[in-house]
Amino acid sequence: TATATATATATATTTSTTTITRTTTSTTTSMTTTRSLPSPTKHFSTFCWLITMSSGGELALVIDHFAKHINIFACDSWSVFSDKNDLAPVPVTNIGSLDSTMCSWGSWCNTRVFLRAWDIVIKEGKYSRKAWTLKVDADSVFLPDRLQWHVKDISAADPWYLKNGNMLLGAMEVFSNAAVRTLAEKRHVVCIYGIDSSGEDGFIDNCMQKLKVSMKMDWNLLRSTRNPQECGDGSAVAFHPFKDVGSFIACQGVMTR
What we know:
The protein is α/β, with parallel strands linked by helices. Helices cover 25% and strands 23% of the residues. The chain has a 7-stranded mixed sheet with strand order 6-5-4-9-12-11-13. It has a 3-stranded antiparallel sheet with strand order 1-2-3, with no helix packed on it. A hairpin with an 8-residue loop joins strand 11 and strand 12 (172-176). It starts with a strand and ends with a helix.
């Protein structure tokens, strides 16, 4: 009996009948591919939120907007806050009492109420998956897609916020993804004074400055008018205030025609 050994992986045994047996060694390499999620700041997207009273004209507006998928409900993601657990059919998060005292200049010192909402916005994390966060009043008529032309020259990956002229007006507040992340990380350390002596828009404006968030001045962000016929300015993102459903829908109709 003669035995021959091949230099590869085969062994040949010779008898009166020649049988060749090949043994193949197979090596399996396990590869793990990590697929990174797309950055939320790469493309234009919006997360919008508002606070509404749980009765009256403001709630009527929000219910109408929800039914028609307009205003904040036309954003890519949204949240509604109030002082009740149920505002059916509108999904809502209860943030407690919305009562505020009157500031010395005649407006509401409502910062503490809005900071409770901001805390939940940050905890929920919806903002983190969108490029831009908008805090909007229920009586502000706006089209979310119009905002993209106002932020095309700045990146949501950088900390930015928009001011309507030289003021931040609560009817429409716009923050980049990075700006809200900065607020989430540092607000409880840096922005701790003036909570009970200012309106929320003035407080947030001051807070953004303390946090070194860059500001873009945009005179066309928000138009102040009560006349629906003046809502035809295609350069504006929002018009305010329209406090009843009829005038609100009339303004929106002019915006979209």
